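question for whoever is on the cluster today: can someone run the full assembly for these? two chains, 613 residues total. i dont have access anymore since they changed the login thing
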Amino acid sequence: MTNLLRAIRHNGKAAAGLFILLLFLLMALVPGLIAPGDPARITPDTSLGISGQHILGTTAFGQDIWVQVVHGARPALLIAVVSGLFATVLSVLIGVSAAYLGGVWDDVLNLFTDVVLVIPTLPLVVVIAGYFAHHSISVMIIALVVTGWSYGARQLRSQALSLRNRDFLEAAKVRGERRSYIIVFELLPNMTSLIVANFLGAALYSILTASGLEFLGLGDVNTYDWGTMLYWAQNQSALQTGGYVWAAVPGLCIALLGTAFALLNNAFDEISNPALRPVRRLRVAA
Amino acid sequence: MRFLLRRLGFFVLTLWAALTINFAIPHLLPGSPVTAMMARYHGRLNGAALQAVESALGIDTHQSLFGQYLSYLKNCATFNFGTSVANFPTPVTTIVGTAIPWTLGLVGVTTVLAFLIGTAIGSIAAWKRGGKLDSVLPPLFVVGTGLPYFWVAIMLIMVFGEVNPWLPTAFGSDNTVTTGWNSDFIGSVLQHAILPAAAILVTSIGTWVLTMRNTMVTTLAEDYVRMARAKGLPGRRIMVDYAARNSILPNLTGFAMSLGFVVSGAVLVEYVFSYPGVGYQLVQAVDNEDFPVMQCLFLVITVAVLLSVLLADIITALLDPRTRSAR
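^ ran it for u. tokens below:
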């Protein structure tokens, strides 16, 4: 763990990603302190521009955009982290067992992973959401987990395969350790950085897909998530009526959060595969 | 040959899985889509329409579940997808058929372009590793992969359609020109495609740049590249014929595997630009609770992706002698 932290500190991309993520985490933890007010409150001050009273102006319903943006961080992070976490658990379970069990199990699980991987996810999620009359966060998280685990499972499987015949695992087998012990205490610790990278990738996928769904009106339109804000902005033709801030800022937040996950993910790729690190740093280290 | 047969088997299996998912979703979810539609259309739906919906979804209360499944498969094989509910009695195939060329033109062409350009940039970045290009572009493209497709589309509309009204921001062509093979229509179509194509390009190109760069960095460390350098071959030749040529295969496999994600993003881009393609129609169908159209569109999108994956496999088999040797 200390190695990971040191690696993050020495990687510019990771540090930038972590900084953005912490900023949003702060917003999600204490939105009331940063932007006091009720994001849903409808007032007669509709479509105001940027001013001292309304930092980012107001929506066509007279809601304060800044308050909505800050309060939107919590549901966005919640969806990203929870579905990213569950998808990663599923990836580890399926990918690592495929590699470790081998034989027929590997063939079956690998085929299953590939099938899920190539079926286009968003149309599938749209169709699933279409059949539900009431859209809720939990339905969305389930749909995201079911469709989001396959890429990670594939990557984890190939890394586990390359570790499978290493000496330290053979040694554990000779010692007479149980299979579950070997997987949990010998194999998984050596895959930490790839598992973390996978979590970040799954979280990135979740935040982008979830906001896309909400933008289409397939989320819970009564919460104040960034995707939902964009749905209402599109619904009220914000672009055509000059409400540029309303259409730009929520998307910018999604993009920033997505970028934070993408930067961290890329940095962990570099950490787990030293060959990809920038050349200059290698020379300094040598 | 064995490689291709295996991939063909995979294609058939995945197709079957997609068909089954499509059948299972309306059957497994709580509530009947037919009653949901009856409630929505308040009795404006006559018996014939209802029956059409039931047969399209494979719901037949007189048959066992397995029997329903079999007749659903038969309907799919004969392209009998029933009639649309929102535009009764237009057959589903007519609606879907008019949408396909638009998507194929926009998403198909743009995806291939993004792959080619991305691969080229990635290999140059890897070749000049540590150079200016390599230190600026990869981080930039990492940021690109974190951008939501639809928001990039909205921003393009804002900048090039609203603030500076330079380009059309909605629909596939002007409705003042007559559809057909005339220069006015083709020009209008191209003009309408610029912004959506740019949105897809900006957000999808990064993946290809990064995977190509990362594969090629590994390839450049191989002995045969060192050998080529030692022989004194010109740098261009080493880059293209030795390194890039051997790195493109993993990138191609990655391309096939990521197509699903790209197509997913394209659905949203089409929606933002009201582009009359498959993705836009899908969202419309979901909004109208037009389940037969929705099902058929999901199948069309999936089959298109599967066919592209198969095509990428065939190209892989042609390029890589190892896959052709009998194992």
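summary bc i know u wont read the tokens: Chain B has two domains: 33-80, 96-324. Residues 257 and 309 of chain B are 7 Å apart (CA to CA).
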